Amino acid sequence: MDRAPNEIEALIAQVARLPGLGPRSARRLVLHLIQRRDQSLRPLLAALDRVAQSAQTCTTCGNISTLPVCEICINPKRATAEICVVEDVADLWAMERGGIFGGRYHVLGGTLSALDAVGPEDLRIPELVARVQAEGAREVILALAATVDGQTTAHYIADALAGLDVQVTALAQGVPMGGELDYLDDGTIGAALRARKAV
Amino acid sequence: MDRAPNEIEALIAQVARLPGLGPRSARRLVLHLIQRRDQSLRPLLAALDRVAQSAQTCTTCGNISTLPVCEICINPKRATAEICVVEDVADLWAMERGGIFGGRYHVLGGTLSALDAVGPEDLRIPELVARVQAEGAREVILALAATVDGQTTAHYIADALAGLDVQVTALAQGVPMGGELDYLDDGTIGAALRARKAV
């Protein structure tokens, strides 16, 4: 044995590869789990197993759910006229935490990227066009990152929807809540100045 | 649905309670696992399950192992004459990473603490005294934290072993490797000065 027994060392190595964890935090986490087997390790195993069995991708919007069509898409209270386009499920969850948007989503599964060779056929853009036509959406809100790839994708989607009777909008850019001008980058200050509003 | 489906939200809540993780990193981790079910989630489940089945506390030293007596205690190459006393298994693993110590360990399971009402009977101190007598150890090395509780525990153990024919030593205190004096606390500088050596 080098540090810990083989099965335990193997578990530490696997945990250390997860996002946000490293060898040291993985060791601490695994030790915590072993020392609290009944309060922590077994419930975690059961919860992981349930998710492994039930998690699936919503066939309509691409959200992760435990149903074939996700809780948002089958919710009759969510407006069908507005579709919010997000890059991935993490962004969808972030929008939902805001609790402002009452429409439905469309998860692209990434952004166009010349560097990573991601083209339009790799994203769920054709599905978006088909949904807009089938569901009669009146507005598509592009909630994509303010990066080069995000904005390229936004332009591509706006072009793809140009022939349809749908308004395409994007999230406003400007000073974030609690943001101090001194700490903001020049691009954000420029965008906020160009989009200035009457008080 | 509020943010994510129930089973997934339950898993995120459990992961968020683990040491070193919070709600945001737990969400990221769970999403990562779901999106890489075959490469990441299923292997992690299997590894966790193996550890849940096999991990146990060594009946001799208190180390965590997959055997009733751990790999260190059954290793004939490890000296029986030296017993290194550590607070917990994490400290044992830290000592093993150093790779210097060739003896065996004794895990106390904590330190004496008036605040947390941890008395000698809550730690594995009687077992240590019995081991020293039974195994004929010549040296007990106290590798305890340089805190008030750690040093109180060290003094208590030294007293408990006073009647036996065994030398009790403790880890040296001083300037850590790469430590700059300017950033060290006064206590460390004082201890290093008192323990100064001829060059």
Automatic annotation (TrEMBL), chains A, B:
Keywords: DNA damage, DNA recombination, DNA repair, Metal-binding, Zinc, Zinc-finger. GO terms for molecular function: DNA binding; zinc ion binding. InterPro entries: DNA_Rcmb_RecR (IPR000093), Rcmb_RecR (IPR023627), TOPRIM_dom (IPR006171), TOPRIM_RecR (IPR034137). SUPFAM superfamilies: Recombination protein RecR (SSF111304). It holds the Pfam family Toprim_4. SMART domains: TOPRIM (SM00493). One of its GO terms (biological process) is DNA recombination. A zinc finger (C4-type) spans 58-73. Residues 81-176 form the Toprim domain. PANTHER family: RECOMBINATION PROTEIN RECR. Belongs to the RecR family. May play a role in DNA repair. It seems to be involved in an RecBC-independent recombinational process of DNA repair. It may act with RecF and RecO. This is Recombination protein RecR. The gene is recR.
